[in-house]
Design a protein that fits this description.
Blueprint (H helix, E strand, L loop, with lengths): L8 H12 L4 H8 L3 H10 L4 H11 L3 H6 L17 H15 L5 H11 L1
Helix pairs in contact: 1-4, 6-7
Amino acid sequence: MSINFNSGGAKVLDRIIEAYGFKSKVEYSNYLGTSAASLSIRYRRDLFPSDLVVKCMDETGASLQWLATGEGQFKPVEQSKETVISDETLVKLERLANLRDKGAITEQEFSELKGQLI
């Protein structure tokens, strides 16, 4: 695998946003705690966003190959094992999703709490 550190960063940023499940660039910039303008600058510069790729890999399990090139699988095969979730956990997840949908918790808080349940 070859990574071009001088171009292609905009596509990598798009894949990062996809990996997190955000619907917009603004939603992602809010998650990062930065302005939309700051993220826009990264898009315009088009440089490989190493720091954001590493953070995304850690938080979502996305593979480096997929993030960097768009090739291969989103998650490595060994991480895609089926998880058995109890009815109680499902109820808690639904409550968390409702809180997120109502704006009572942020997407980041939802992800962190979901990670604790699963």
